[in-house]
């Protein structure tokens, strides 16, 4: 599956434009992580793009956080490698499908989560652009528990399980998002 096919599949299942942008940002961060870690950037990008593929269907079933990721396997079987599907299932610890164990699992949990913190940081700038965001601002906002309170700092810190310090991870993720700022409207 290539990026275009992943985006088509995402748009078939997700209608909320903000969620689509989050998934595109997650894909960019995952591709950058894959390059840094010497693994397959296309496989990791696609997992980032498709990690929330079942979020709207799960919301219809009620208790979103317990249901999200439980429907993903059926939607992705035969379309993504098994390791991608496992990482997607594990990124939502509230669904209790399986604990995160692999490098891929930790990368997806950290990578998709930091996109929310970076986006929220961009929104506090007068121009609301990623180009204005600095790594120091992201790491400062990490310490402010009330800022973007729904963003799990614990998930972001899983970057350390990849051997990447927070400041380096924030720089990598910010650059990945800045590179596609036009797609994100930021």
Describe this structure in words.
This protein is an all-alpha fold. It has one domain: Hypothetical protein af1432, CATH 1.10.3210. 63% of the residues lie in helices and 0% in strands. The chain has twelve helices and no strands. Helix 2 packs across helix 8, helix 7 packs across helix 8 and helix 8 crosses helix 11. It is globular. The mean pLDDT is 96.
Defining traits:
186 residues; mainly alpha; Hypothetical protein af1432; 12 helices; 63% helix; globular
Number of helical segments? 12
Give the SSE order as H and E letters. Answer: HHHHHHHHHHHH
CATH level 3 topology: Hypothetical protein af1432
Count all strands and give the number: 0
Summarize the structure.
The chain contains twelve helices and no strands. The protein has helices at residues 3-13, 17-37, 41-50, 55-60, 64-67, 72-76, 82-90, 103-123, 135-143, 153-156, 166-179, 181-184.
Give me the secondary-structure topology.
Blueprint: H1 3-13, H2 17-37, H3 41-50, H4 55-60, H5 64-67, H6 72-76, H7 82-90, H8 103-123, H9 135-143, H10 153-156, H11 166-179, H12 181-184
Helix pairs in contact: 1-3, 2-3, 2-8, 2-11, 3-7, 7-8, 8-11, 9-11
């Amino acid at each position: 599956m290539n990026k275009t096919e992943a985006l088509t599949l995402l748009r078939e299942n997700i209608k909320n434009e903000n969620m689509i942008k989050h998934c595109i940002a997650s894909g960019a961060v995952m591709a950058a992580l894959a390059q840094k870690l010497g693994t397959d950037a296309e496989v990791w990008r696609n997992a980032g793009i498709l990690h929330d593929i079942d979020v709207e269907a799960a919301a219809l079933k009620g208790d979103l956080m317990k249901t999200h990721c439980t429907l993903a396997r059926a939607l992705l079987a035969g379309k993504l490698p098994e390791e991608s599907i496992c990482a997607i299932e594990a990124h939502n610890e509230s669904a209790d499908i399986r604990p995160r164990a692999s490098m891929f699992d930790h990368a997806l949990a950290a990578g998709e989560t930091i996109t929310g913190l970076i986006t929220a940081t961009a929104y506090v700038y007068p121009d609301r652009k990623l180009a204005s965001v600095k790594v120091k601002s992201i790491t400062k906002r990490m310490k402010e528990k009330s800022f973007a309170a729904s963003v799990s700092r614990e998930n972001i810190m899983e970057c350390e399980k990849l051997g990447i310090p927070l400041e380096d991870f924030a720089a990598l993720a910010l650059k990945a998002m800045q590179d596609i700022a036009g797609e994100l409207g930021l």
